[in-house]
Amino acid sequence: MRALALAGAVAGAGCQAERPKPAPTKVAAEPEQPIPEPAPEPAPEPKPARARFDVHVHLVSDAVDPLLATLDRAGIQRAVVLASPHLDPAHLPDQSERFADWRGANDRLLELSAGHRDRLVPFITADPAEARPEELRAWFDAGACGVKLYMGHRSFHARPLADEAHRPMFSTLERERVPVLLHINTFRFEAELGELLASYPELNLLCPHFCGSRTDVERLERILAAHPGLLVDTSHGPGKPGVQGFTALELERERVRALILAEPERFLFGSDLVTSMVEQREDIARFEWDRQVQANLGLLEADRFEFNRLVGEHGVMEWSEYRGLALDDATLGPVLAGNAERWLASCLDE
Fold first, then answer.
1. How much is the pLDDT for 24?
2. Which of 9, 94, 224, 231 is within CB 3.0–4.6 Å of 206 for a Cys-Cys bond?
3. Percent of the chain with pLDDT over 90
4. Can you tell me where the transmembrane regions are (predicted)?
5. Domains and CATH numbers, the chain
6. Least confidently predicted of 17-31, 105-119, 198-212, 227-241
7. What is the C-alpha separation between 283 and 229, in angstroms, rounded?
């Protein structure tokens, strides 16, 4: 019976296949429609209305307008902008020495920020063995507020921090109470930091990235206790060191919160933003800059924030959630802006 049914089905199918097909109906061609533009990215959620002052931005690629737009989106009213000759793809020196054009970088920074001094506070840079007091004074007279020094980075550590060759510069900076932002790898050069501050005890010094101790809170505690006049910023960059910093601080969340709550006047918000363009694509830059700035704010303001995290055996970067410090409003006031205004009071326009 199954065979007969199957045969009948096949025969029926064959009969249907032999029937002539109706002629296809012609449909008038529709006019080509334009390809729709992709939907715009949703605007970031507005930040609560409070004062914010970013003390750590590397202004490169001549990207003044994109930087100002980024600050606006994040609710940041002012930023310290740093001369960064080794990070500027638009003005890389011909020499193999990445820091060779530091004088030119200072002149460009002052020119770029000249029309925006109400928002952008320029910090020049220097080779401490070459900088002459009279040229420092000329830059200050032209509008520079402070000095960013990279000599504590192992790539630029030509001499000990307190070397005699640096005395003319540091004596000038200490005497005039010039704000100084000194990058220092305290894993390698913690003792040199102590020697520098012993030689120049009135130096108006801020040490970034939790004074190079994001991954070692015990070292941070030791440095803060040893140098009660030292300020630190809370900045994290986009690369592996920044990711490792966020990860380590999350593990020591309550300990770090206790440090800040005990002495909130010593901590200053920074983002370590580098305004470098990727093949001149401002949309890509905007996306990456926003993520970095929002993460650095989230560390302080939020209970949860998002940023890259190293995961797996091979340390692959993956977008992830972190626990933030969720500081209270009374603490956020000085950390986000008040401490910066006090540190820079000598050169801020009222």
1. 46
2. 231
3. 78
4. none
5. 53-300+328-343 (3.20.20.140)
6. 17-31
7. 41
Examine the pLDDT at 285 and tell me if it is beyond 50. Answer: yes
Model pLDDT for residues 89-122, shown as the tens digit of each residue: 888 766 567 788 999 999 999 999 999 999 999 9
3-class secondary structure per residue, 186-217:
HHHHHHHHHHHHHHCCCCCEEEHHHHHCCCCH
The DSSP call for residue 179 is -
How would you classify the pairing of strands 205-207 and 231-233?
parallel
Q: Which are the contacts of 319, defined by CB distance < 8 A and separation ≥ 6?
A: 306, 307, 308, 309
**Is residue 172 within 8 Å of residue 200, measured between CB atoms?**
no
How far apart, in whole angstroms, are the C-alpha atoms of residue 183 and residue 150? 5
